[in-house]
Design goal:
The complex is a heterodimer. Chain A is mainly beta. Helix content of chain B is 0%, strand content 57%. Chain B starts with a strand and ends with a strand. Chain B is mostly beta strands. Classes of the chains: A mainly beta, B mainly beta. At the A-B interface, strand 5, strand 9 and strand 10 of A face strand 4 and strand 5 of B.
Chain lengths: 112, 111
């Protein structure tokens, strides 16, 4: 099975500051990778997905961006954080044999 | 519009009791339906995944059912334990990338 690592686990950042969240995957190669956000009291929202190095698809227009510099590395970034960016960010990979999605432990982001 | 509705929004039960969570969806075309358990502050963990042809699937004390005709699914938890306290999320897929998430049911199991 796959293992997904995310860091940092928690982050408190002021409005207007930059953001970089990192996700790495073990146990598979050429995975489909996803970034989700979970706001308080709301469901999971797909932000970006990637089917390969350098290939990023955005699901929701916003001030966030994603990059995939390596096969098993997925990065979520922002140049200037907004208060509305606060939430729980989850990285996920796709088990193409099992059809399962494997989620990382998440990063709790608080923008102050 | 593809939607996934879960009920109840929250539920409190006594340890040892059974409970059933509901999921109704309007996702089309349907590919599969998953139930996830999410502990507070953690990523979701898959419980079951069912395709169109599957009516029921069990994972220990968790049993999921699917009625593709009425577009309804349920998750039944038997002999609940304190560790079952979590959010349970229903996810319906209509393609490899398009997953539609419910908002979840928050379950609290009390002693």
């Amino acid at each position: 099975s796959q293992t997904i690592h995310q860091w940092p686990a928690t982050l408190v950042q002021p409005v207007g500051s930059p953001l970089s969240l990192e996700c790495t995957v073990e146990g598979t190669s050429n995975p489909n990778l996803y970034w989700y956000r979970q706001a308080a009291g709301r469901g999971l929202q797909l932000l970006f997905y990637s089917v390969g190095i350098g290939q990023i698809s955005s699901e929701v227009p916003q001030n966030l961006s994603a990059s995939r510099p390596q096969d098993r590395q997925f990065i979520l970034s922002s140049k200037k954080l907004l208060l509305s960016d606060s939430g729980f960010y989850l990285c996920a990979s796709w088990g193409q044999v099992s059809g399962e999605q494997y989620f990382g432990p998440g990063t709790r982001l608080t923008v102050t | 519009k593809n939607q996934v509705e879960q009920s109840p929004q929250s539920l409190i039960i006594l340890e040892g009791k059974n409970c059933t969570l509901q999921c109704n969806y309007t996702v089309s075309p349907f590919s599969n339906l998953r139930w996830y358990k999410q502990d507070t502050g953690r990523g979701p963990v898959s419980l079951t995944i069912m395709t169109f042809s599957e009516n029921t699937k069990s994972n220990g004390r968790y049993t999921a059912t699917l009625d593709a005709d009425t577009k309804q699914s349920s998750l039944h938890i038997t002999a609940s334990q304190l560790s079952d306290s979590a959010s349970y999320i229903c996810v319906v897929a209509n393609s490899g990338y398009a997953l539609n998430f419910g908002k979840g049911t928050s379950l609290l199991v009390t002693p």
